Amino acid sequence: MALHINSGCFTVMGHCRVQRVKAVASEGSANVTVEDKLKLGGSDLKVSTIGIGAWSWGDTTYWNNFQWNDRNEKAARDAFNTSIDGGLTFIDTAEVYGSGLAFGAVNSETLLGRFIKERKQKDPNVEVEVATKFAALPWRLGRESVLSALKDSLDRLEMTSVDLYQLHWPGVWGNEGDAVQKGLVKAVGVSNYSENRLREAYKQLKKRGIPLASNQVNYSLIYRVPEENGVKKACDELGITLIAYSPIAQGVLTGKYTPRNPPSGPRGRIYTPEFLTKLQPLLKKITEIGEKYNKTSTQVSLNWLVAQGNVVPIPGAKTAEQAEEFKGALGWRLTNEEVAELRSLASKIKPVIGFPVEKL
């Protein structure tokens, strides 16, 4: 996710295995099947085709208008439950989301652990695939730093193991392999890794007989840097799943914002009225395609990513309504012509600034 200095919060095809076949959602959509669960890279972990990002849960520096209260928590809980009800069971968090360094913040891992515990009390057999991340801070150099941080995350999540553990950004290569062998994680991944760093991480883990399951990067219709810097190609080649954060450009691809109504807070400095003006032709085409399928702009934008293959989008859900909308991105598929048309229009727009280390 985007870098936000003050918060301390840095924001192949992997073989897919079809569990059930869903009916085509609307007349005119491509006649395809949609996987309920797919394997994450070469690991044995299966996750939902679309996941949910929990960056905003508990945050008071980038999201939620700099405050967190009971109303926010109820909305996040409802988003979680609606996601699970809709089959979006892959939830991504991190130790730095809702950092305790920010006034009034609540750690996202703590909230997720709370929501899962409450849900399991009602439905003990509920399935949730949990992903979290290790913050590769400069002073975390020792071999035990990864395991120590992981155990702290597990305490906050109230779990004995986590499904996917990721290095949040490049740093000194950690020892996630030890975490796998100790049974603390099922799969390991990285985040914000360039092609060269990705290949090196893959090679180091392979020596220990452990597959690199995923690389989580900023990827959307208007931020296609992973296609341009070789990351997407390397993921496909090596059998690493690309997890796409900010897949609807932090809400900008929903059509909610206009030059006269830009996002509030830090996002307003990224998605400026000038940028939103240039975005209008693309947004208009997304709307037109959505009307053809009776789908929203959000659903079209997410479907575009799913159509790339080997991509798991994780849009952030702050409300139940958003989570319900995300579910509608599945069960149908854009045509190849529509995918290409949207990419062509999007290519005329200069991407916003991404995570600084993704080019290293």
UniProtKB/TrEMBL annotation:
Tell me yes or no: is NADP among this UniProt entry's keywords.
Answer: yes
| Domain NADP-dependent oxidoreductase per the UniProt entry, residue ranges | 50-345
Q: Which GO terms describe its molecular function?
A: oxidoreductase activity
Q: Which domain of life is it from?
A: Eukaryota
| Keyword terms | NADP, Oxidoreductase
Q: Is the keyword NADP assigned to this protein?
A: yes
Q: Which Gene3D superfamilies match?
A: NADP-dependent oxidoreductase domain
As recorded in UniProt, coiled-coil segments are none
Q: What is this protein called?
A: Aldo/keto reductase family oxidoreductase
What organism does this protein naturally occur in? Medicago truncatula
Encoding gene (name): 25490557
